[in-house]
Amino acid sequence: MAACWVHCSLLLLLLAFTPYSGTLKCHNGTIVKFGSGLTDQVFDWSTENTIEAEPNGICQETFLIVDVGPKSLLVGSKGSGLHNGWQENQVNNYAQRPGILAAMFTNFCEQSECNNATSDEVLVTHLRLPPSFDTSSIKCSVCLTDESFCPMNLVFCPKNTACYSSDITIKGGGVDKIFRVEGCLDATAQNIFKGEEKLGVFSVSEKRRPLTADSFSLLFAPGTSLAWVLGLGLFLTLYLTGFIISDEAISL
Ligand SMILES: *[C@@H]1O[C@H](CO)[C@@H](O)[C@H](O)[C@H]1NC(C)=O
Ligand SMILES: *[C@@H]1O[C@H](CO)[C@@H](O)[C@H](O)[C@H]1NC(C)=O
């Protein structure tokens, strides 16, 4: 009895003074980065900060890339998260090129500081990037921002895409932001994230906006563009003819 008391107390003392025994340490931090060509270049990002995993939590890192062509966005989070079926080193491609691209890397892992990627290479090398694509005669507004205002920027879209505009809210893992996303999206896709609302540690809600640029897609749609160009040509011809006639009339 006495022997056990001594042994057991010693054991308890040992356990009490072993730092973080049984708890996981995870790298912790967030990044929101706008750029151009983030789909073609690796962006270095890591954090020395660590935290203890939350109760029942494991370590996680989640990288999300959204690219609308001229502009890209990287949202990253490292910290603690709940397992919820997320795997180690998983890549999900959502929207694909041609058009808006959206993809995610998640690493939910159970060793201390295992969420240790030092760049978004883990995601960038797995993006599906077709080498080239044909342009259509549809024009759409292109924008990617966390501000409420989108500067006017119309571009000709790749073939088989349609104008897309939405507000995307990303919350969780230390991030809480609303992004305006506008561009050309695969015409068969209803949304960017295939209706998924849980992307790794992030909760995502995607709200389509009414398209102000839709008139442009109609205007430049293949069926009408020729008529429109012919109409403009006719107008210009008449205008120029009229101009020349009146010019002559004045000089007479
Ligand atoms: C990152 O974490 C994994 C899993 O714990 C480990 O195997 C690997 O050695 C770590 N890499 C670095 C650079 O620390
Ligand atoms: C990690 O750090 C961020 C700040 O960068 C913080 O907002 C977040 O709550 C922290 N904890 C976890 C578990 O991610």
TrEMBL record:
Q: Which InterPro entries match?
A: Fert-Immune_med_protein
Q: Where in the cell is it found?
A: Cell membrane
KW Transmembrane (keyword) present = yes
Q: Which sequence ranges are marked TM in the entry? A: 226-245
Query: Is Lipoprotein among the key words of this record?
Result: no
Query: What range does the record give for the signal peptide?
Result: 1-23
Q: Any idea which UniProt keywords this protein has?
A: Cell membrane, Glycoprotein, Membrane, Signal, Transmembrane, Transmembrane helix
**Top-rank taxon, per record:** Eukaryota
Q: What is this protein called?
A: CD177 antigen-like
